[in-house]
Amino acid sequence: MRIMITGGLGHIGSCLIRQIPDQHDVIVVDNLSSQRYCSLFSLTRKITFLEKSVEDITVSDLGTVDAVIHLAAYTNAAKSFDAKSALDRNVKDAKDLALKCVHTKVKAFLFPSTASVYGSDVETMVEDDESLINPQSPYALSKWKIENLLKETLGNDTKFIIVRFGTIFGSSPGMGFQTAINKFCFQVSCGVPLTVWRENLEFMRPYLGVKDACKSIIHLLEGPESYKNKTYNILSGNYNLSDIIESLKNKVPNLELNLIKSPLINQHSYKVSDTKIRSTGYVPTQDLNEEISNTLVLLSGIK
Ligand SMILES: NC(=O)c1ccc[n+]([C@@H]2O[C@H](COP(=O)([O-])OP(=O)(O)OC[C@H]3O[C@@H](n4cnc5c(N)ncnc54)[C@H](O)[C@@H]3O)[C@@H](O)[C@H]2O)c1
């Protein structure tokens, strides 16, 4: 397959371009807005790199492409309350790119949504029950809008695959630190108190190792047609935030907490079920405690 990865220099993309088997051609499109030039260091295979924004992808760029993995986006969920225009752009970019893919008969379009589209009193979230959808932030709402746009636009020649990822943990060559676990690792490594949303301390939530995320993408793209035009929850495990903090305390005993009020309202504690993806033979293998240790080792040079 010839695979185009937008946002391929980001946290997930920089891991993915190293995991995609060599028999596939890889084209990375990234506008370098996050300055992750280092994601291109020491690649062990040849890829094509296009420095451009998603809106500038042409039908000619897509001409011989079989599959698009659309990772490029404004990605800071916590700051998304003040980022309406960036989120509107995410929605527009995804729709326009999907239309170009239909025009050029790209066979598959994979989109990473988020497990934070859920929010209800039900204990366990499954993919195909829309009554469980209740996006908890403008970022999550924009992901839900894109999911629906893709379902309206795609499905015939161009099949969609929607993956609802848990919060990513673990290191990658173009690692980002805006999501909870990686930010915690950075804060404790710098000796500053952990900023934690008080209301979330006892909440159960899904988390996903970055390598597991990439493995799921490859598994679904390489799989049979019956895997496509479907939505999947992807996680390495459901974890309670206070257990994660306990695990950090075991590694950094003098850790301090700065409990702040969450900007999100009407939140619920929930688990996410990954039975659907597991029924296709995919098994996640990353362990959160182990990856926290690995990330802390990477940062252990900070006094
Ligand atoms: N990290 C998570 O916890 C998580 C969870 C669920 C879903 N996702 C989704 O997965 C995708 C990738 O996440 P990530 O953590 O790797 O993000 P990231 O912020 O690390 O990387 C995004 C990349 O996209 C590029 N980019 C941004 N806007 C662009 C544009 N308009 N045109 C071209 N390039 C652009 C940036 O330069 C960056 O390299 C995003 O869509 C994100 O919303 C991430």
Description of the molecule:
The chain is α/β, with parallel strands linked by helices. The protein folds into two domains: about 1-170 and about 210-235, NAD(P)-binding Rossmann-like Domain (Rossmann fold, 3-Layer(aba) Sandwich), CATH 3.40.50.720; about 180-205 and about 235-270 and about 285-300, Alpha-Beta Complex (UDP-galactose 4-epimerase, domain 1). About 30% of the residues lie in helices and about 20% in strands. The chain is built from nine helices and 14 strands. The strands form four sheets. The protein has a seven-stranded parallel β-sheet with strand order 3-2-1-4-5-7-11, sandwiched between helices. Helix 1 links the parallel strand 1 and strand 2 (about 25-30). The protein binds nicotinamide-adenine-dinucleotide. Nicotinamide-adenine-dinucleotide binds next to helix 1, strand 2, strand 5 and strand 8. The site of nicotinamide-adenine-dinucleotide has 28 residues, from helix 1, strand 2, strand 5 and strand 8.
Sequence-ordered SSE layout with sheet pairings:
Blueprint: E1 2-6, H1 11-19, E2 25-30, E3 48-51, H2 59-62, E4 67-70, H3 84-103, E5 108-114, E6 124-125, H4 138-153, E7 159-165, E8 167-169, H5 180-189, E9 194-197, E10 204-209, H6 210-222, E11 230-234, E12 237-240, H7 241-251, E13 257-260, E14 271-272, H8 275-278, H9 288-298
Parallel strand pairs: 1-2, 1-4, 2-3, 4-5, 5-7, 6-14, 7-11, 8-10, 9-13
Antiparallel strand pairs: 10-12
Helix pairs in contact: 1-6, 3-4, 7-9
Bound molecules: nicotinamide-adenine-dinucleotide.
